[in-house]
Each structure stands twice: as C-alpha cells, then as structure tokens.
Amino acid sequence: MMYVNAAVCLSVLLLVIGLSVGHNVINFKGSDALNSAPLIDGHNDLAYNLYDLLNNNLDRFNFTKNLTDDKVWGTNVCNTCNTDLPRLRKGKVGAQFWAAYVDCASQYKDAVPLTMKQIDVIKRLVAKYPNDMQFVTEAKNIEEAWKNGKIASLIGVEGGHSMDSSLAILRLYYELGVRYMTLTHMCNTPWADASIVNDNSVHNLTNFGEAVIYEMNRLGMLVDLSHVSHNVMRHTLSITKAPIIFSHSSAFSVCHNYRNVPDDVLLMVKANNGVVMVNFYSGFVNCNSSRKATIHDVVDHINYIRNLIGADHVGIGADFDGVLRMPEGLEDVSKYPDLFDLIFESNVEPRWTKEELEKLAGRNLIRVFQAVENVRDTLAKTESPRQDIIDVRDVSEAEVISHIQPGLCQTSKEWDDIRNNSTSRQ
Ligand SMILES: [Zn+2]
Q1: Whole-prediction pTM
Q2: Has 45 been annotated as catalytic?
Q3: Is 227 a catalytic residue?
Q4: CATH code for 40-405?
Q5: Is residue 103 flagged as an active site residue?
Q6: Bridge partners of residue 99, in order along the sequence
C-alpha cells in the first residue's frame, strides 16, 4: 500500500511539474526576461539634450513627468527627445550608460571643460532623483541597484577628443566615475581614426593610441569601439588585454554603414569575449532608402550577430536622444519590452532561450565589465600609471587637417619648439 501511495504521489508530483513547466513555456514572453535580468542600455544622449536645450539647468527639467507632449521636450518639437522616467520605467530599463558627449568642434579648444560639465550634469541628475536612480561605478553594483528598484546609472565619455590627447585627463575621468570611453566620435583624434575613414586611413591607431588602450586596460575603463574606423577596431582588438564593447553599433553585413561592425571584426569580438550593443538608429539598421526602418530591422541585426558569434556577445545600445530618427515601433525608451517579445517570437533556429535573452538584456555587459575589472586588478600588481606623452607634431598635423591654426589654443611648453620653428617633422 505504501508503494502504491508513493507511486500515486510521484505521478501527481510529475504531473504538477509537467503542467507548470508547460504552462511557463506557453505563457513566457520575451519581455519577461527583463523581470529576471537588468536591461542595460549602452548609450543614451539625454545629457547632451540637457546642455543643448536647458544649458544644464535642471531646475527647468522635470524628469518624473511623461514628456511626450511637453512644449520643450515633446515629440512634436524635439526630434531627438525620447527619454523620461515614466517611459524608462515602462521600458523596464535597469541600467543606463549616460553619454558625456561634446561636439567635435570643441576638439583642440574647450573639449575638456565641456566634457566635465556633462559629467557634472549626469551626476546632478542622478542625485536629484534618488528614488529612481543610483550612480554606479562597479559591475557588481548594477544588479544590486536594479534589485533595489533603481536605474543603475553609469557614465561613458563619447569621443577621444574629450581627453585632449592626455593620459592624465583620461585617469581623472576614471576618478570621476567614467567607465567607458568611445575612442572617437565622428572626428579623427591625433591618435585614432573615426569612421568613415577606412582602408585608406591616415593614421589608424598610433603608438600613443596604443598607450591609450593599455592605460584604459590598467584603469579598468571599458574600451568602446563604436564610431572608430574598421581598421582601428581591428588594431584595438589585436592589442587589448581586456574585452571591449561597442556601446552603440549594429551589423555591417545587414546594413552597409561604416558605423556598423563588419563580420571579421564580429569574429574578433567573439574571440575577445566582448559585446556588441546594437544601435537602433534608423540610418544604421536600414540601408534601404525606399522604406522606413521598423523594429523588425533591429530584430534582424540582433539575430544576425547572435547567429554569427553567439548570444554571449550581443547587447542593447539604442542611442536614444542622440539621433533624429528611430524605427517604427521603437520610438522611445518605453519600447524595449516590445523588442524582446519580437526577438523571442522571431523565426530563428535555434530559438532564443530565456537565459540568452537575459544575456542580451544585460548579463553580457556585466560579464564584460567584470572581466575588465579583473584585468585591472591583475595589472595593478605589476603596472604603474603610464607616462606616455603624445608627440605634439601629431597634434599639430591633425590641427592642420582640421583647418585649425596649429598651436592656437595650446600654451604648454611642448609646443614652444613647434611654434618657434616648423610644424613639420624633421
Ligand atoms: Zn554616437
């Protein structure tokens, strides 16, 4: 009798487990992954809009309001305005890298103080909304903040022009809490080429550019390869000691735009254990000018990268508030759950698993960030801050190419010889 009872109990138990597993599989939606893992977006330019529209005066900004119809921030009056707290919450955003971006026109001029202002405004914004946001500088704190109901907020400097060719400035940005730097924006720096320069590029990554990568590795700052030329991507991946990120780039094979990542580089990212966080900008995800971009184009880019190099190396870096056109279905920061639903429903083999969707959402970025911190901790035992100084002739030549009078804005002693003699190399 005991055996019979045990058998009955076992059958009932198996039935219940079977039903519940079946139930979960049937009812699972892709966006459910955003309840079990933080959605980490690699790039949002809200801070630039705060500068552009309000000169960073936060008294005139109400982040807790849905700004869709606002007379300054509304969809009808501002093409690049996609972000506020209610929509971030609806979008289930768990963490955000806020871009400290300043225009390329500031290179060789006031790029450093302007960047400092953007770092400051991001910190002030986060501090002003402590119930919703938490400033984070370590990988382990992202998930912790998210579990406490906060949007983990991190800073990325977008563009190497912001460090004014100085490792001292780079180090101080790290001290201020900056956790990635995009090596270039749309302009070349004296040490790295931006896209669209490609195979016939002028400098690629110079010796000083290599020193920048090594110092970022030593500091524990994520190297971001969005915006750089394809050859700088390749060069950096061949020398970096830590995994890299693309904070907001898509797949070149799907849309031939040089801001996107070509297949050979994607394969290098896989070997490097890095992550490509897919950009949503209409111009990068759809190269067919006869139609408008849709959410399905973004699904295609994510699936393409996942199928080529695996679900461990793809993430999300929408570029909200930074671009003029977003695809139909991804108009603002509230739309991420729709994207995850569609990715899970998409017709790819093998189908996405819940675990893979969690990696796409944010776990891949956390893994890369932790690996970068581990490299930092290992290098701390053997390496000191690097003291490389850029050859000012490189800067001088870059200024000529940028149609700026060489040395006009430089007073440092390294420039004396150049100003007194010649701007050309011996
Ligand atoms: Zn960008």
Answers
A1: 0.92
A2: yes
A3: yes
A4: 3.20.20.140
A5: no
A6: 156
Q: Which of these is catalytic: 84, 215, 224, 227? A: 227
User: From CA 404, how far away is CA 355, in angstroms rounded?
Assistant: 51
**Cα 237 from Cα 265, distance rounded (Å):** 8
Residues 161, 158: Cα–Cα separation, whole Å: 9
Spacing, Cα 20 to ligand 1 middle (Å)? 44
**Rg of the chain in Å (alpha carbons):** 23
SS3 assignment, position 221: coil
Distance (angstroms) between ligand 1 centre and the Cα of 43 equals 8
How many angstroms is it from 134 CA to the middle of ligand 1? Answer: 24
* Side-chain-facing half-sphere of 284: CA atoms under 13 Å: 29
Residue 248 catalytic? yes
pLDDT exceeds 60 at position 397: yes
Q: What is the dihedral of CA 233, 174, 110, 208, to 10 degrees?
A: -40
Q: How far apart are CA 99 and CA 79, in angstroms?
A: 18
Average pLDDT of the chain, as a whole number? 93
- Measuring CA to CA, which residue among 163, 236, 172, 173 is closest to residue 206? 236
Q: How far is the CA of 45 from the centre of ligand 1 (A)?
A: 8
Q: Which residue among the candidates 84, 143, 185, 215 is catalytic per the annotation? A: 185
Q: Please, which residues have CB within 8 angstroms of residue 319's CB and are 6 or more apart in sequence?
A: 43, 44, 45, 248, 279, 280, 281
pLDDT tens-digit map of 15-73: 445 444 444 556 899 999 999 999 999 999 999 999 999 999 999 999 999 999 999 99
351-373 pLDDT, tens per residue?
999 999 999 999 999 999 999 99
Residue type for position 410 = Q
- The DSSP call for residue 262 is P
| Angle subtended by helix axes 230-239 and 263-272, to nearest 10 | 20
Pairing of the two strands 93-101 and 39-44: parallel
- Gap between the terminal Cα atoms of the chain: 99
**Does position 349 have pLDDT exceeding 80, yes or no?**
yes
Measure 318 CA to ligand 1 centroid, in angstroms. Answer: 10
Query: Are 279 and 326 in contact, with CB atoms under 8 Å apart?
Result: no
